[in-house]
C-alpha cells in the first residue's frame, strides 16, 4: 500500500484528501506546514507527496524545491495541489521539481488518476 504525505495548512483540505486517499486504499501521513512537511518527507520517505502552495513560513514552492533537491528525497514525486491557477504558478511549480500541478477543488477521480500515474512511473 502506497503512503502519501499530505502537506497542507488547511485542516478541511487535509481531511478531504485523507478521506479520498484512504477510501482508495492509500495510507496517509500529514504535515500542516512546509517546514514540517520537508522534515516528515525525510523521516518517513513516503511514496508520493501532495503539496499545497499557500502556507505560512515555508511555502509549497520552497518545500517542493527542498524535497526534490535533497538526495534522500529527490526520488519522491511531488504533486502540487493549489488554489493558485495562473500559468506562471504552474510553470514555477514544475521548475521547483513538482511532477504535476492540480488546481483545487480537485475532483476525486482526477486526483487518484494523477497519483496512480506518478506511482507507476
TrEMBL record:
The modification 4-aspartylphosphate is found at residue 52. Keywords: Phosphoprotein. SUPFAM superfamilies: CheY-like. SMART domains: REC. GO terms for biological process: phosphorelay signal transduction system. The keyword Kinase does not apply. InterPro entries: Bact_response_regulator (IPR050595), CheY-like_superfamily (IPR011006), Sig_transdc_resp-reg_receiver (IPR001789). Residues 3-119 form the Response regulatory domain. This is Twitching motility two-component system response regulator PilH.
Amino acid at each position: 500500500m502506497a503512503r502519501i504525505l499530505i502537506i497542507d495548512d488547511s485542516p478541511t483540505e487535509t481531511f478531504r484528501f485523507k478521506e479520498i486517499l484512504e477510501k482508495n486504499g492509500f495510507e496517509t501521513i500529514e504535515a500542516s506546514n512546509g517546514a514540517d512537511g520537508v522534515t516528515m518527507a525525510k523521516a518517513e520517505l513516503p511514496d508520493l507527496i501532495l503539496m499545497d502552495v499557500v502556507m505560512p513560513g515555508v511555502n509549497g514552492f520552497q518545500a517542493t524545491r527542498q524535497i526534490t533537491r535533497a538526495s534522500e528525497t529527490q526520488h519522491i514525486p511531488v504533486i502540487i495541489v493549489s488554489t493558485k491557477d495562473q500559468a506562471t504558478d504552474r510553470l514555477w511549480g514544475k521548475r521547483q521539481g513538482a511532477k504535476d500541478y492540480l488546481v483545487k477543488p480537485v475532483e476525486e477521480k482526477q486526483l487518484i488518476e494523477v497519483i496512480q500515474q506518478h506511482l507507476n512511473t
